[in-house]
Structure formats: structure tokens, C-alpha cells
Amino acid sequence: MTVPRKSEKSRIANMNPVMSRVAAGGGRWLLDADNDIWLFTNNGAPTSGTSGTGATVTGTASLCLDYLYTALYKNTNTKASPTWTEIAEEEAGGGGST
Questions:
Q1: pTM for this structure?
Q2: Which end of the chain is less packed: N or C, by CB atoms within 10 Å?
Q3: Residues 12, 26, 6, CA angle at the centre, nearest 5°?
Q4: How many Å apart are CA 56 and CA 91, to the nearest integer?
Q5: What are the residue ranges spanned by the domains of the chain?
């Protein structure tokens, strides 16, 4: 996993207020720079839509870990208008016994 450079933090800060807070706290990682796929944390469930969490920054397949409710979400729409869909425990290989 590559840690983003300082110049990327500035670019992120100018793009979106939510991601700016994430970048400032150091709690984010850019997984795929070519496709803007992110893994980041959030205090609560992310919001969807053009003014939602990560709008204009987080591309399709980005992941958001909600550490308040311990849930994982995936952007199943576009970077312009993310739709955050919770990944069910079963889909994530949820380790339950059979």
C-alpha cells in the first residue's frame, strides 16, 4: 500500500471537505490512483449522493469503514455521486461457524 505524498494531501483538501478532514487526520489511504479507489474511515455511516461522503473524490469500488457502528461500505455508483452500499458480513467472508 502506497502512502500518498504531501502534494496529494493538498489536492485532496481542495477537492472535498469530507476527504479534507480525512486527509488532515491521516486516516485514509489511496489504493488506486488511476481510478480514485479509496479506503478510508468515517465516524458513522457515509451519506450517498452528489454532496455525500467522498463525492467527486471516491471512485467506484472505494471502501468506507464506519468505526462507530463497525460496518463496511462500498461505493457502488460513480465518483460524482457515490452510493454507499453496506457490505454484508456474509459477503465479506464473515467468519461465522456453520
A1: 0.65
A2: C
A3: 50
A4: 27
A5: 6-86
Give the cell for residue 59. Answer: 471512485
- Sheet with strand 37-42: strands edge to edge: 28-32, 37-42, 63-66, 71-75, 84-86
Closest Cα partner for 43 from 14, 75, 65, 15? 65
pLDDT digits (tens, 9 = 90+) for 38-77: 998 888 999 999 999 989 989 999 999 998 999 999 999 9
Cβ-based neighbours of 25, under 8 Å, separated by 6 or more:
none
Matching residue, cell 463525492: 55
CB atoms within 10 A of CB 25: 10
Cell of 47: 451519506
